[in-house]
Amino acid sequence: MGVSDRFDEVFSALEQQASDLTARLESARSRIRELESTNQELVARLTRIQQMSGADGGHSPVSASPSDDVPEAVPVAFEGAEAGSMATSDDSDVSLSFVPDRPVASDELPPVPEESSTPTEQNMSEVVETAPLDPVQEDISPQALLKQWYKRYPKTFFERHTRPLAIGIHEALAAREPYSEKLIRRALAGYVNLPRYLKSVRVNAPRIDLEGQEAGRVEEEDARHAKEQLKRLQDRQQEREAEKQKLRLAQKMSELAHRHQR
């Protein structure tokens, strides 16, 4: 097979990929239009119900704004202060909560559990919240709070070498920090979801409290879950790198085809 034939095959494959992507994009746009139409119908229906309720009870109807009924979802996992660390999620993964020692399937996220008398490490990262933070807490982000902890608790939170945290450490933080428990949990989730933290969760490794003192040991099940979680993060990173490589190759082939046509 000659170079020209090979080039024609590659170019045809690229054209087919472009056609497939265009079709998928159009399908997504159509779906968005359908959802927007459905949303408008639901808002109109809610407005009518509120007006009827107001007429019956003597109360003025409440404005049916989407923001009043559907609270904004709070993203869970983030990279924190670790520059250059492995990204934990792309646009479709940002809202997922990954439990470092006991991960939850991305399509089966549970609601935030009520506080039990016996805290578990699972509480540290099960922070899928639907309610926004209190206004007084919105002046600091989870990332910024985590950076403060690096300085305030240098024997517990580390920017490089990392050690497993004590079970229930979120309660100790809540007792000391002047922030809401929601914000504390989000900042803590950003730390325990880092690849370097997951690597530190090994069998029988000592856990530490806010003073840097030993507070229990990592059990075999915890280490196994952390290892599985780390592998998922690494697999997603490899998938993203592969996609980037495909895009770079497609761009180079397109440039080559353009020069060949001239």
From TrEMBL:
Database matches in SUPFAM superfamilies: FinO-like
Coiled coil regions, renumbered to chain: 11-52
Biased segments, Basic and acidic residues type: 215-246
GO MF annotation terms: RNA strand annealing activity; RNA strand-exchange activity
Stretches for region Disordered: 84-124, 215-262
Domain of life: Bacteria
Gene Ontology CC: cytosol
Entry keyword annotation includes RNA-binding: yes
An annotated GO BP: post-transcriptional regulation of gene expression
Residue ranges occupied by any ProQ/FinO domain in the UniProt entry: 137-246
Keyword annotations of the record: Chaperone, Coiled coil, Cytoplasm, RNA-binding
Signal peptide: none
The protein's name in its UniProt record: ProQ/FinO domain-containing protein
Organism listed in the record: Kushneria konosiri
Classification lineage: Bacteria, Pseudomonadati, Pseudomonadota, Gammaproteobacteria, Oceanospirillales
